[in-house]
Amino acid sequence: MQEAHDQAGDPREDLTGATLGRRPLPDPPQAAEPVARGVGEDELTAHQHRLHRARAALHARREAIRADAHRNRVYRAVVGAVGTFVVALGLLLVPLPGPGWLVVFLGLALLGTEFSSAQRLKVFGERQVHRWARWIARRSLATRAALGTGTAAAGAAVVWGYLAWQGLPGWTPEVVTAQLQWIPGLER
Asked: Do 103 and 122 touch, CB atoms closer than 8 A?
């Protein structure tokens, strides 16, 4: 039976296109090789070549650091400290208007360059954000407006609570102070 299979040839050979007169498919890229999306290596633009060279230089520098155990520990500690600071800053910014969650995910991306658990947490968080966005998109306009109003009210309550607790900062301009004096509980 093995002889019959050998005579017929390996059926996978036809999948490469070699018997059909086409070029065989290229080997899949290895983990260390950059992947050019949508174009061949010869068709890269000048910008993509510069980006490729910059990535290769950064990768080489990181590998040189990784080769020295002491430098690697210091590098990982610095990345860990900076990434944790960025995540904490983002979490503080979440209730305020602005890019709080974006800052959190940037911090997790930074941590994810060195720590696989942070990378997994970032992927999980992104998946939850996409689920939330799809859920919101399926709701009526009135429901979305109510959620937006509730979120804005919660953010305003947090800001008011902080200012009522701490008072208006001394560096607040007089124009702003005059406008905020009518809000109950706020004192300079």
From this structure: no
